[in-house]
C-alpha cells in the first residue's frame, strides 16, 4: 500500500467524526463539505492501485569493458541510441523512442582498476 493510500484510509474515520460533529452542531455547510470530502476519499480508495510502470533500461554502450561511451546507450528493448551531446538526463529524455516505456538509466559499470 502506498503512503498516499494509507493516509487516505487513516483520514476517513476523522472525516466521518467531523461529519457527526457538524450534524450535531447543526452546521449544514460543514456537513455538506465533509460529506463530499468523505465521498471523494472513498472513491479514490475504491479505484484499483496503479500498476507499476514498466521501464526500458538504457545502459551506456561499452565497446571496451571499463570505457563506456558517454553519449551512446543500448536499450533493453534491443536498440542503440546516440546523443549528439550529453546523455539521457542532459537531453531531458523521459521515454524510450522505440518502445515508449519510461527510461531507467542503468548505473555506470564499476570502474576498472588501472
Ligand atoms: Zn525501449
How many angstroms does the end-to-end distance come to?
A: 46 Å
Write down the Rg.
25 Å
- Classify the beta-strand content into a percent band: 5-15%
- Using DSSP, what is the number of strands? 4
Structural class: alpha+beta
Q: Tell me, what's the shape?
A: rod-shaped
Main sheet: which strands, in order across? 3-2-1-4
How are the secondary structure elements laid out?
Layout: H1 3-24, H2 28-46, E1 55-60, E2 72-75, E3 80-82, E4 102-105
The structure holds zinc ion.
Brief sketch in words of this structure:
The protein is of the alpha+beta class. The chain contains two helices and four strands. The chain folds into two domains: 44 residues; 62 residues.
Describe the model.
By secondary structure, this protein is of the alpha+beta class. The protein has 2 domains: 3-46; 53-114. The protein is 36% helix and 15% strand. It has 2 helices and 4 strands; from the N terminus they run H-H-E-E-E-E. It has helices at residues 3-24, 28-46, and strands spanning 55-60, 72-75, 80-82, 102-105. It has a 4-stranded mixed sheet with strand order 3-2-1-4, with no helix packed on it. Helix 1 packs antiparallel against helix 2 (28-46). The longest helix is centred in the first third of the chain and has 22 residues, at 3-24. It is rod-shaped and about 75 Å long. It binds zinc ion. Zinc ion (ZN) binds next to loops.
Amino acid at each position: 500500500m502506498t503512503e498516499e493510500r494509507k493516509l487516505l484510509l487513516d483520514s476517513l474515520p476523522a472525516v466521518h467524526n467531523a461529519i457527526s460533529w457538524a450534524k450535531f452542531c447543526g452546521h449544514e455547510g460543514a456537513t455538506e463539505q465533509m460529506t463530499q470530502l468523505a465521498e471523494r476519499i472513498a472513491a479514490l480508495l475504491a479505484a484499483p492501485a496503479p500498476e507499476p510502470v514498466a521501464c526500458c533500461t538504457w545502459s551506456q554502450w561499452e565497446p571496451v569493458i571499463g570505457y563506456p561511451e558517454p553519449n551512446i546507450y543500448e536499450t533493453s528493448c534491443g536498440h542503440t541510441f546516440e546523443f549528439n551531446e550529453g546523455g539521457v538526463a542532459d537531453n531531458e529524455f523521459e521515454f524510450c523512442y522505440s518502445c515508449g516505456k519510461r527510461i531507467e538509466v542503468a548505473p555506470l559499470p564499476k570502474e576498472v582498476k588501472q
